[in-house]
Amino acid sequence: MKLSRIVVIAISLVLSKAWAADSELNYYQVLKSLQGNWKLAPAKLQEGGATKKGPAAKLLGTGKTAMSFKVIGKGSTVQENLMPGTGMEMATMYHCDNFNNCTQVKATHYCVKQNQPQFILAPDDSSSNVVTMACDMSSSLCNSMDGHIHKITQELSPDGNHLTTTYTIFKDGKFQNNVIYHFVRQ
């Protein structure tokens, strides 16, 4: 009787690890599906101040690319460029820790704040159309008092043509604000 319980527990653990790895890959696939160019949605759909000033304001209503995603490295990396071609351009590189056995989706954000916070997938805050990357608390920047992006959330609409991207900013070790952009696929 005890042996059968041990076998059942062992099989459950193996299957749960396989499911977790598979779900990490599924989240990475959502990021890959963002490939292409995105323009800012109309002003009435924007929220907060991100599109009221700076490069975003200059792109609003122009139809120009405000965010792009490109799958590179034979599918091993997704490159995100926010505000391409402007003085405020930033990039985020998403990848699996091991592409053949994706157990962790990771990212590095190359910020205009001249720092590079590192992220790991936050599966509890993610779903089939939402990918949330949380600051990797094992890194020094994520634990610092310096201003930095602390969380990135990509929320794709069911039709795949609308994207809400939220950058959560921390400073002095606490939440400062969310910078939210609404995009439409070009």
Describe the structure.
Mean pLDDT is 89; it is low at 3-21. It contains two helices and ten strands, in the order H-E-H-E-E-E-E-E-E-E-E-E. The chain is an alpha+beta fold and 186 residues long. The longest helix is centred in the N-terminal third of the chain and has 31 residues, at 2-32. The relative contact order is 0.16.
Q: How is this structure best summarized?
A:
This protein is an alpha+beta fold and 186 residues long. Helices cover 20% and strands 38% of the residues.
Strand order of the largest sheet: 1-2-3-4-5-6-7-8-9-10
Q: Which regions contain 5 or more consecutive residues with pLDDT less than 50?
A: 3-21
**Shape-level CATH architecture:** Beta Barrel
Mean pLDDT: 89
As for the number of domains, it is 1
Q: Please name the CATH topology.
A: Lipocalin
Instruction: Give the fraction of residues assigned to helices.
Output: 10-25%
Computed structural class: alpha+beta
Please summarize the sheet with the most strands.
Answer: 10 strands, antiparallel, barrel
> Could you give the count of β-strands?
10
Task: Lay out the secondary structure.
Elements: H1 2-32, E1 36-40, H2 54-59, E2 67-72, E3 77-82, E4 90-96, E5 105-110, E6 118-121, E7 130-135, E8 148-156, E9 162-171, E10 174-185
Antiparallel strand pairs: 1-2, 1-10, 2-3, 3-4, 4-5, 5-6, 6-7, 7-8, 8-9, 9-10
